[in-house]
Amino acid sequence: MATTQVIVAGAGPVGLTLAAELRLAGAEVVVLERLAEPTGQSRALGMHTRTLEVLDQRGVFDRLGGQLGTWGHFGAISLDFGVLDSHVAGQMLIPQVRTERVLGEWAEELGVPVRRGHEVVGMTQDADGVEVEVAGPEGSYRLRAAYLVGCDGGRSTVRKLAGFDFPGTDATTEYLMADVEGIDLPARFSQPLERGGISSFPLGDGVVRVLLAEWGAPPRRRTEPPAFAEVVERAARISGEDISAGTPRWVTAFGDACRQASEYRRGRVLLAGDAAHIHLPAGGQGLNLGVQDAVNLGWKLGAVVTGRAPEELLDTYHSERHPVGAEVLFNTRAQSLLLNTGPEADPLRSMLARIFQMAEVNRYLTGLISAVDIRYEVGAGEHSLLGRRMPHRVLSTEDGETTTTRLLRTARGVLLDLADDAGLRAAAAGWSDRVDVVRASSAELAGVDAVLLRPDGYVAWVAPDTGEALDAALRRWFGAPRAH
């Protein structure tokens, strides 16, 4: 039987990001993807600030080539994302097909094998690992690994095989979405009409994306995508517009079901992305939430399977990411009340539009949707940086100018010595195989003597004003020191 350290089910943005992170951590990984070829569909069209930051931490941002803008929304009410403290503040307009291509090329460069047309159909786990039954183009086979991660979407086979609970609510509203050539519709975003809501906006190359929700129409249980004729009929009922002369590139349907796995880890099986949580894609948070799941899990799982950290480190994946997912489900449910109601809610929308213009409210909502305001529980201490992502800061070192972002390209921990403290550097010497110690200075980090960064860019320890010794923080996040 073939073996590897980690099996990743699913080669979408989440699975590819996770696989790349695992390789950067030195782990062996195999990706199994049910589809023989990428769909070519771009359901997601944007990336938020924190996702752009984590991809820049790995040197991938410059490959994306999307358009960065500062406009965003909460329930179709405008927000200004330009207020965020980030070198990539805003949202990047980038089709999912390009995102997957870039992430796929990155994973391939790191040596990730992606087996397309290979579907997980069975699974058993024991105390030492997971055995997966795979249906491939040339027949069935079995593959064993220390861990299996389901990144296989909202209908996750891995989640079902492993017996994860997936509580929540079923869809009450169905959306039809199509990318259509050869039609002329006005640009509008979530316009509420008497019979339903409609969005239509150009994607370039003569393609218009049409998104339709019909009030009172119950969601249908579908096994195939809807026919374009159904989209044409719904558009005529909702807005009176005839789009029958158009040619669809693809058509899909989705609903506002809201569910979250009660746990993100069951023994040797973990979930990430839509396999762990589904929700209305309001505010474009779905892909972003999943990629950040992958970045949180990747360095931890990589450290565990390569023997550099204890298995208990994996418990922090659930404790950190489950509350984040729950918060996204909460805010998308709130947005659905604005998106799935007709003109009778216009006075509420107008009132909220005024409130959202207030600087404090705008900053709160943009920080929420962009995920830059996440704060993890990383240990004792009250410093404002502790548990938060390290913003992009310019540093001066003996080797020249660099940034906090660039220091994370190797996906290792980073201990920033900002006070030229030889004792600090000596205390971290036992972790030199996992943590880079960098002597630096920065006007943007005035009053900070030292900072310990996890590989995902979150601050694990700060001096002064910390309630935990450096040794304890290093052990907690990077395992025991190397034996001399």
From TrEMBL:
Domain FAD-binding: residue ranges: 4-329
* Family matches, as Pfam families: FAD_binding_3, Rng_hyd_C
Instruction: Note whether NADP occurs among the keywords.
Output: no
Cofactor needs: FAD
- PANTHER family with a match to the protein in the record: BINDING MONOOXYGENASE, PUTATIVE (JCVI)-RELATED (PTHR43004:SF19), TRK SYSTEM POTASSIUM UPTAKE PROTEIN (PTHR43004)
Keyword annotations from UniProtKB, A to Z? FAD, Flavoprotein
- Asked if the Swiss-Prot or TrEMBL record annotates the protein with the keyword Flavoprotein, the reply is yes
Chain segments annotated as coiled-coil in the UniProt record: none
What species is given as this protein's source? Streptoalloteichus hindustanus
Q: Which GO terms describe its molecular function?
A: FAD binding; oxidoreductase activity, acting on paired donors, with incorporation or reduction of molecular oxygen, NAD(P)H as one donor, and incorporation of one atom of oxygen
Q: What is this protein called?
A: Bifunctional hydroxylase/dehydrase
